[in-house]
Write a structure and sequence with these properties.
This protein is α+β, with helices and mostly antiparallel strands. It has a four-stranded mixed β-sheet. A two-stranded antiparallel ribbon has the order 1-4. The chain is globular. The termini are far apart. GO terms for molecular function: lyase activity. Belongs to the PrpD family. InterPro entries: MmgE/PrpD_sf, MmgE/PrpD_sf_1, MmgE/PrpD_sf_2, MmgE_PrpD, MmgE_PrpD_C, MmgE_PrpD_N.
């Protein structure tokens, strides 16, 4: 890997574009060759994963709204598919609808380092553009692997959340790079698209704070849509604010560490295999990633605590990130409010631990149902659970070696008679370093479980077969990556939506 040292430069420096981070990202993307077999196989896993969670979310309100907006933008060109409809629309709108469906349940892949990310959010815009432009499955795989490479590099090197900037700022840049790789665009074009995308997709983390709204699902889809539009403009010769990262009024100087900002971003050398996708991991449970190990730990503790009415208190000793983002350290009263939205509850470690401790399982719908959240004994237990930051868990969260990195914590359960029960779990069971790392059969099983009752069994089989053959699919074959659902039922559901502008 090549380490690129990034700092703020005054305009008088006239920083050459070859020395700018946006250029180096574009160069790494356009230099991406055919992916190695293990990287390509993992990309297939993530295509399956995305389809599973998107189908499961089809009838949720934010997804239906995004779909209705997309259907108002048909195209006379080739277009791209909108999941659940059988219709094709302009690719940026297909990315908007499908990206919202993928993100809605907070149930697909993740990568955590200096910042947070859901790199699977790159896939809907890449697939939309691949369909629209008649690219092959091999082209799509190359674009996905490149997007993951750029996304992981940015997440490792530049922390956004410390300044309360939402993590989709890195997603937009990665998607623009993946699109450039997919389309085999010149480095100059991708460079301009990256800068436009970063400039237009930077937002605050209020979308993930307090009373969390449905925008949390829309935000990544918006970044994907914006990246497609930026690539389109760049292909037509339009330029961007430059240098977007290093400029004295740019991203680093005004939104992150300020004029004295220094960062290091490591990118692959020319010809070096793109393997960052292998460092990412998916979710077994529909919840914020830092709650994955919390759920597994709670399930394990059930046998040790006895009747839960005897629990006096539970303290989760965990990392700074977990304590301040989904724990009591966030200072959000909504994290203890039974009337909170699903989006808020899936960012509440105390709620998640309470329900997992009571039920011994986790379900993407039942575990968040309003009547489940308002159950009196659950509320009583929930409000006896707190988190604290433990410096050792923070250190392990930032461990340079991914195989030793930890996203879990230690639970200290104090019973009414003073007995203390303790246990800890470093990573979720499904993590690559966990007790049951996800493999291809696990992704297929997740797909089958989440689509049961929505897809006919033969439709699920056809999708899985197509995904397995992704590298060999021609342009028409990409259509098979959209599982065949009952479009009439989806349309009937959507007919009850309030009308908008379109």
């Amino acid at each position: 890997m090549l380490e690129h040292h990034v700092r703020v430069h005054p305009s008088a420096d006239r920083l050459p574009r070859e020395d700018q981070l946006a250029w180096k990202l574009a160069q790494a993307a356009t230099g991406t060759e055919e992916p190695a077999a293990d990287s390509a196989a993992m990309a297939v896993n993530r295509v399956i994963d995305n389809a599973a969670v998107a189908v499961a979310a089809l009838l949720r309100r934010p997804v239906a709204v995004a779909r209705a907006q997309a259907l108002a933008h048909p195209t006379t060109a080739r277009g791209a598919s909108v999941l659940g409809t059988g219709a094709r629309v302009s690719p940026e709108w297909a990315a908007w609808a499908n990206g919202t469906a993928v993100r809605e349940l907070d149930f697909h892949d993740t990568y955590l380092a200096a910042d947070y990310s859901h790199p699977g959010d790159n896939i809907p815009p890449l697939l939309a553009v691949a369909q629209h432009t008649g690219r092959t499955g091999a082209d799509l795989l190359r674009g996905i692997v490149a997007a993951y490479e750029i996304h992981v590099a940015l997440v490792k090197g530049i922390c956004l959340h410390a300044h309360r900037i939402d993590h989709v700022a890195h997603l937009g840049a990665a998607t623009a790079c993946g699109l450039g790789t997919l389309l085999r665009l010149p480095t100059e074009t991708v460079y301009q698209a990256v800068q436009q995308t970063v400039h237009t997709t930077t937002a605050t983390r209020q979308s993930r704070k307090g009373e969390i709204s449905s925008w949390k699902a829309y935000a990544p889809a918006f970044a994907g849509k914006a990246a497609i539009e930026a690539v389109d403009r760049a292909m037509r010769g339009e330029h961007a604010p430059s240098p977007i990262y290093e400029g004295e009024d740019g991203f680093l100087a005004r939104l992150l560490d300020g004029p004295d900002a220094h960062y290091t971003v490591a990118l692959p050398e020319p010809g070096e295999p793109r393997r960052a996708i292998l460092d990412t991991y998916t979710k077994e449970h529909s919840a914020e990633y830092q709650a994955q190990a919390v759920i597994d730990l709670a399930r394990r503790l059930r046998e040790k605590t006895g009747p839960l009415h005897r629990v006096r208190s539970v303290v989760l000793h965990t990392s700074h990130h977990t304590h301040h983002v989904i724990g009591s350290g966030a200072g959000d009263p909504q994290k203890y409010d039974p009337a909170s939205s699903r989006e808020t509850l899936d960012h509440s470690a105390p709620y998640i631990f309470a329900v997992a401790l009571e039920d011994g399982t986790w379900h993407h719908e039942r575990s968040y149902a309003p009547d489940r959240a308002r159950r009196p004994e659950t509320v009583e237990l929930w409000r006896r659970i707190t988190t604290v930051e433990d410096p050792e868990w923070t250190r392990r969260y930032h461990e340079p070696n991914p195989a030793r990195r930890a996203f879990g914590g230690r639970a200290v359960v104090t019973l009414a008679d003073g007995t203390v029960v303790e246990d800890e779990l470093a990573v979720a069971d499904a993590h690559p370093a966990g007790a049951r790392p996800f493999r291809r059969p696990d992704y297929a099983a997740k797909f089958r479980t989440l689509t049961e009752g929505i897809l006919a069994p033969d439709a699920g089989t056809r999708f899985l077969d197509a995904a397995e053959r992704l590298a060999d699919l021609d342009a028409e074959g990409l259509d098979a990556l959209f599982p065949a659902v009952d479009t009439a039922a989806v349309a009937a559901h959507d007919a009850h939506l309030p009308k908008g502008l379109f």
